[in-house]
Write a structure and sequence with these properties.
This protein has eight helices and seven strands. By secondary structure, it is of the alpha+beta class.
Length: about 325
């Protein structure tokens, strides 16, 4: 086992050559000196051989345990590895096995999450497609102008929903892959919030909802993407309250820029709070049209720009979203 190692075999040849020369010189000087030198060389060689053999036995055992780990998944027992160099090797292998197990567990988790996500997406698309097929069948049976107009509106609504779903999923995939290039620029909080409110003002007016703002400071971000993130939060607030007030406050300090969005709705169910930003999660009070992507997309957009978002129930009632953009390089 030892002599299979080229370095050990080379050392053995050098040792035997030097020992033979030394013993020959000792024999030439004195016979007793020759025997003493020969005995010393044999003793040293034996000690070296036994030490090397023990190391190689431990290494062989370690290799067998690693092989067993790869094929059966059992843990490695490193208790027998006490030598200095072998102990270092054992430590590094132990770290490697722990890391590999963590990665394997994460891959299994991601695989399960992907399967669930695909099932959710398929369900959402299939629901809209089924509704569209039913509407098309009804259009063939009832051709009155009023009914056809109603069916067209229904088809348009389902098509817009499917388009939004596919678009949001593509954006999430690009954010996960890190292929989206953000273009940060300075924008005032007042202008940013106004851009996010513009698409919702008509609907808010129809539902008797008002907006109260108190915004100071500016923010360095990608205005387009950040506006989309805010729209998702504002839309969530307006959809979960009747006539009421939406309060938006913003401030800036040396560490971060903060936006707080509070509605006067019923708030978020306690069991929904930890999961509200998870993909495809639909809260207890979610509408039938909800898909569970908007807030997940918001979190991904903000995280990609060194931002955070959290939700809680305000003491006076309603949901309170807190967004922070930390001042560092995006």
């Amino acid at each position: 086992m030892v002599l299979r190692n080229p370095e050990a075999a080379r050392f053995c040849r050098y040792f035997c050559t030097v020992s033979a020369i030394g013993v020959s010189v000792c024999f030439f000087l004195h016979r007793r000196a020759g025997f003493a030198a020969l005995a010393l060389c044999l003793a040293l060689f034996l000690l070296w051989y036994l030490a090397q053999r023990r190391n190689y036995q431990n290494m062989a055992k370690l290799a067998a345990e690693i092989d067993e780990l790869l094929h059966s998944g059992r843990d490695i027992q490193f208790a027998a590895c006490k030598e200095g160099e072998l102990s270092l090797l054992e430590t590094e292998i132990s770290k490697l096995t722990v890391k590999l197990k963590e990665q394997s567990a994460q891959l299994e988790k991601d695989k399960s999450s992907l399967a669930d996500a695909m099932a959710d997406v398929s369900h959402q698309l299939r629901t809209s497609l089924t509704a569209m097929h039913l509407v098309l069948a009804a259009m063939g049976n009832d051709t009155t102008p009023q009914t056809l107009q109603s069916h067209r509106r229904t088809l348009r609504r389902h098509l817009e929903r499917m388009d939004w779903l596919v678009s949001a999923l593509l954006k999430l995939a690009k954010l996960d892959a890190g292929v989206i290039a953000f273009h940060p620029s300075s924008i005032s909080l007042q202008d940013l919030v106004q851009k996010a409110l513009d698409p919702l003002l008509v609907s808010m007016e129809l539902h008797g909802q008002e907006v109260v703002t108190s915004l100071f400071g500016s923010l360095i971000c990608d205005p387009a993407w950040t506006t989309e993130a805010l729209v998702n939060i504002l839309k969530n607030c307006t959809e979960h309250m009747e006539a009421g007030i939406l309060t938006i406050t913003g401030s800036e300090n040396p560490l971060y820029t903060q936006l707080c969005i509070q509605d006067t709705g019923p708030g978020v169910a306690p069991e929904d709070l930890p999961h509200l930003f998870e993909r495809f999660y639909k809260g207890k009070n979610a509408s039938a049209e909800s898909v569970g992507i908007g807030l997940a997309l918001t979190r991904s957009i903000l995280a990609a720009q060194n931002g955070t978002v959290k939700v809680e129930n305000a003491p006076e009632g309603g949901a309170l979203f807190t967004i922070r953009f930390y001042k560092s390089v995006i």
